[in-house]
Amino acid sequence: MKSSLVVFFIGLSVVYWGQMIIPQPTKSYVPTKDIFEAKDGELAIWTEKMFLNEAEILAEQIKIHRDYIPKIHHWDGKSNVNGLLLKTNLDVVKDEGYHVNIQKNQVCISGRNPAGVLHGVFSYIQMIPIKKGPLDSGYSHDAWVIEDEPKFIHRGLLLDCGRHFMSVEKIKETLLTMALYKMNVFHWHLTEDQGWRIEIKKYPKLTSVGGYRLVNEQNYGGFYTQEQIRDIVSYANRLHIMVIPEIELPGHSVAAIASYPFLSCMGQQISVETDWGVFKDIYCAGNDKTIQFIKDVLDEVVSLFPAPYIHIGGDEAPKVRWENCTKCQKRIKDEHLKNEAELQTWMIEEVAKHLKSKGKDIIGWDEILEGGIPSGAVIQSWRGMQGGLEAAQHNHAVVMSPTSHCYLDYGLDGIDTKKVYQFDPIPSELTQDKHHFVLGAEGNMWTERAPENEVTGKIFPRLIALSEVLWSYPVQRDYPEFEARLKRSFSLLDKRKVKYGFMTTPVQFQTVIENENLWVQIQKENPDMNLFYTTTHFDSQSVEEVQDIVDVNGPIAIRRNSKINLQVGMKLGGSNQVNWMTRIFANHLALGKDILLNYTPSNAYLGGGLKGLVDGCLGGANFRDGNWQAVQGKDMEMVIDLGKIESITEVSTRWFHYANAWIFRPEDVSYFISIDGNNWKLLNTDSVGKRTHPSEPGEFAVSSKVLAEDYTAYGFFMGRYVKVQARSIGKCPDWHDAPGEPSWLFIDEIIVR
Ligand SMILES: [Zn+2]
After folding, report:
1. What element of type H or E holds 258?
2. Which of 6, 513, 633, 647 pairs with 24 at a CA distance of 20 to 30 A?
3. DSSP state of 432
4. Cβ neighbours of residue 705 under 8 Å, at least 6 residues apart?
5. Ligand 1 center to 372 CA (angstroms)
6. Choice between 581 and 389, residue whose per-residue pLDDT is larger
7. What is the Å distance from ligand 1's center to 251 Cα?
8. pTM of the full predicted structure?
9. What is the tens place of the pLDDT at every residue in 75-110?
10. 292 CA distance to ligand 1 middle (Å)
11. Residues 409-420: what's their mean pLDDT?
12. Taking the C-alpha atoms of 410, 412, 414 and 415 in order, what is their torsion angle to the nearest 10 degrees?
């Protein structure tokens, strides 16, 4: 037993330890023949004065692994000491660079400054052996020489504390985990339509009113006092993480307007928003009192955050209120502006000038490019890479966080760890001489669908992949090699009780259509995973449930309209997490049959491809789940050929409706049937439930169907071809936040019975 353990560790030292660290060292990593060993069961830390904070963090981290707190001693700059040594090294070129040099009786971590030394500390911590018990069980490990420095200087996480409030403890836990992987920017999203989270002494109602919203007739929310904010900033500062506050303007400001109605164009009392999306009540750009309010707020913000940047948002600001506001129109005239887009630029420049006078630069979302780039602004590109590219070409610094790779609120079926790992923050079109304008990137953790207890599982491990992209900028993205290191790294997270999530969708569903039956094969991503599933048939009168099938072997037959609840239990390292996944499948006459579409589905919403509407896979509550097919601004017509004349009792469709995302159920849906594909009989035109209305909340699927029993004495139609026509409502209606913009139609399946 003992000898096999030894072999195991030797194996590790030869094969793996060189590649243990995440992010991977960029300059050199050389294992040497030495073994470091702590003398006499005692491990001491020696440090220069300027690295005392880093020495304390090193001691705290060793305690997590070994239940032992090393003593910290002042180093005189000369003596050859036994133990761990932190010291200045001016051979290190970059501010955040470091060296780790391990010999028989000394581990020397060095850098130009404390940030570099801390990165060295966390590289070291990632490599020391994890054993139970204090040092009397021995403390020794292999020796290496590491030289390392980052590629990008801005390696961040955005955490939205507006949609869901995150406790101080959760934020600190997140910061510490970020530091473990050398992330150095915490972008703190503090104001939203659904909640204002930062105490402003001059405007107390921002938090007493704007900090809370009604959820199920209860107040939900919270805010950070200025004292708590100072505490978090100082905690982050200790970890060399810069905290950039985001105070959104002119949009996403409903909570502020609910607190002080004079801030808006209308001046009317509104409530803190309870739904998600984009809302048309924004700060009035024509009202001097509103501009003064923003400056007052920012003055207090500036006093709390030492970072050189303030993020001012600037995204998703509908201009409909400004178009109809006499004050805003007067401002456009007085300032000789062309339109509302330029009014937004004017407002942001006012704010930028004010912040500049306090020594701060602004960061804004790429929408602030629309009226011309405000001077000195850093652009954060989220609607793809285009905004960032454009800004960098105009010599503006940019931070990349495109929805394609950096949105951690998206499900793993859209963005998994591998996808994040493939991200390249430098657009291929950007010429070499402008590359330095790309400061780095951020993972964006929006929290509409992520309350505090779910947020860590969404951030990690995907953010760890981003950390390697930004620090190491691997030329060849060898994902299997990274994945192997990541799996070993989970033991660090387990030790710290960090509830990280899955690396990728834990199970894949494959459907096979055979002899007019639909079979679903469930494939596990990880063989150690325990799978359970339950099915619920929801088309019959009585709902039938089959439960607790311990494991899934072989395909599951879907003989009727069937809903499968699949419970996935998965062990990774020492953690034991259980996640639920729900997928809906339907078996019906048109399954796998030929279908002709008179439109081209949006590339982003193919819904399973050209046969996606007859594949048996229904969509879920997330319109991005890959099962919904969509077009924008157009009607839809589909013709299905059943291959032979069949008796049909029912044709049904399902439509997604989510006004805030510009997705509307159809104006109406018409169903036709034909024997020969030329002569069509209209069965019915269905108005798809009640009409849309401004007060209609939420997102959901609405069904439409035609039943033969309503039209024929026999209870069925005879036909070979089925045609469905859906009329789009066209443009978003007047009451909408984006009136006149082309609306979307979303459908998941045409079910023929
Ligand atoms: Zn106005």
Report:
1. helix 254-259
2. 6
3. G
4. 650, 651, 652, 653, 686
5. 21
6. 389
7. 12
8. 0.85
9. 999 999 999 999 999 999 999 999 999 999 999 999
10. 14
11. 91
12. 80
